[in-house]
Amino acid sequence: MDLVDLGTFAAVARHGGVTRAAGALNTVQSNVTARLKALETELGARLFERHSRGVALTAAGRRLLPYAGRIQALVEEARQATADDGIPRGPLRLGAMETTAALRLPPLLAAYARACPEVELAVGTGPTAALVREVLEHGLDAALVAGPVSLPELEEEAAFEEELVLVTAPGLRGPDALARAGELKVLVFRAGCSYRQRLEAILAARGVSGARRLEFGTLDGIVGCVAAGVGVTLLPRAVVEPAWREGRVNLHALPAAEAKVTTVLVRRRDAYVSSALDAFLRAIRGDRSLAAAAE
């Protein structure tokens, strides 16, 4: 099975059409069509059905797609392993929750960049569920998410401990008062955010159900709208303490069972650990030799 044929198949599936895939691959449509035909002939199965908006995977195509992704990822890992001479360099794709990116990553990444200047670092943010999925699908080398994750495919280790607090506008006195607050709005990140699930459980335990959800894509948007009295949210204390000190929001402590959360670093158990990733793992663990290299 030709690797270029498989890559072409995956590109067409990802972009939903031959024309868009050809553009992404910097080739012509006829080459894409020829490679798809060769792959279908070799496998003895149709991989796509054409429709007015492009193409859609057949049942056989859907079964093949994850294998194509795994094969491509394995080939890329083999290239990295062959070229890896122990010096951290090359690409490193990391993911983090929005709150972790705002609170924990800046000093860590600053030290890492000084110690490993040849690493091409890319950091994306998102909710826990989406980040875990990207790690599983080889889209990220590692991600910092709310734990525990407990999936057999993933290696997981504790990175940070956070205290979650209920965040309201200054006028609200405490979480138990929310049941008497009338129609309540909860301000949350998009679906898949673990803090969102925990907030809903906390409110339900206090007799608050049916609260309207307002979804945001940024931390600043959530804090700003809470300060304006739009609704309430649940965030790590250290993230919102600056707004609290400015008198913009009120923070309400929760029992330890509801407040404590561990941020964990997850990576694929079967994936190659490059020197760049190994250096980041050591940075997370507080390796003094890496800190010395950054000075």
Word description of this protein:
47% of the residues lie in helices and 23% in strands. The protein has 295 residues and is α/β, with parallel strands linked by helices. Strand 1 (48-51) and strand 2 form a beta hairpin. It is globular.
Per the CATH scheme, the topology name of the largest domain is D-Maltodextrin-Binding Protein, domain 2
In DSSP terms (H or I, runs of 4 or more residues), the helix count works out at 13
Q: How large a portion of the residues is in β-strands, by DSSP E?
A: 15-25%
Rg, nearest Å: 23 Å
* Low-confidence runs: 288-295
**CATH fourth-tier homologous superfamily of the largest domain:** Periplasmic binding protein-like II
**What's the architecture of the largest domain, going by CATH?**
3-Layer(aba) Sandwich
Quickly count the domains. 3
The 3D shape can be described as globular
Q: Which whole number gives the mean pLDDT?
A: 88
- CATH top level of the largest domain? Alpha Beta
SSE string = HHHEEHEHHEHEEEHEHEHEHEHH
Q: What is the β-strand count? A: 11
